[in-house]
Amino acid sequence: MACVSDKCWELFPEKLSMSTLQETENGGEPKLMSIKFPFEKVFPVYAMGLSKPDTDSVANSGHDPIWDAVREEAKLEAEKEPILSSFLYASILAHDCLERALGFVLANRLQNPTLLATQLMDIFTDVMMHDRGIQQSIRRDLQAFIDRDPACLSYSSALLYLKGYHSLQSYRVAHALWKQGRKVLALALQSRISEVFGVDIHPAAKIGDSILLDHGTGVVIGETAVIGNRVSLMHGVTLGGTGKEIGDRHPKVGNGALLGACVTILGNIKIGEGAMIAAGSLVLKQVPPHSMVAGTPAQIIGYIDEQDPSLTMNHDATKEFFKHVAVSFREGRSNKPLDHEREGAVLESVQGHGN
User: I need a labelling partner for 41 at 20 to 30 A (CA). Which of 167, 272, 279, 309 fits?
Assistant: First the structure.
């Protein structure tokens, strides 16, 4: 099926106008009256017409394949599901770049009666259109969702529907505001992000790009936490402190690390590059690069060959893997025999996994 042309989409608001018949006062033939579609009521923020691109936008510095893909997907989806055509037009096709479309989506998700969508869109757009770092990050994060999340159907679906992506990009704007000294506004955004998405990221935290925040629900990232590039975090991950201490008190996660569901990492400790933290682990000590840890408290159960396990998302602990771990663990402790209780627990986990 051929895509609708860009010209047709520019005329889309006119196509949504409604025509009604109105009788004349002298009893003559009724006249056809045109009533414009109430976009301002259906969508709190709506950009009528296409504004000129901002010269600071990445999209205007050359070809932007991700934005092109988002638009083409939106056109196809509008043809498949006509009931969503006005939503897709207002959210994507009415905008000239990814930054403005994302600002529209986030503003409408985070608005409330006292923090209006129009105000939020102005904030998001102003920050994103003038921060080249954010412009790169929102695209690299979008690509990360496509590459690593099998449930992510397309670029446009991530942009429109995935709250892990929404909360991450909202944090990036709040972080930029924090660095500008607008801390009260940054904290207000943090509060709304937590309420709407169930994700609590302090605006002072430092997060790299190419990040996958899978599902996002229950993620908590503290003020002095640092996350490198190409990191994947499942739902329920906590990067927290250990008490009332002040200063640098939160974890530092290296590039390419994979943090499983409901992992809790406490204190100013380092998670090495390419490390894999098994689901449900409680980490209280440093984790070496390219190691796998599990348990409460977490202990090293093996090492991995992958440079960045976060990219492959391969954290399936098979029966063969557990057998390998059990054998390697015994051989590594040959000078210090493994106590029978502990050895039995490891072997029991192997047998239990096969059932």
Answer: 167
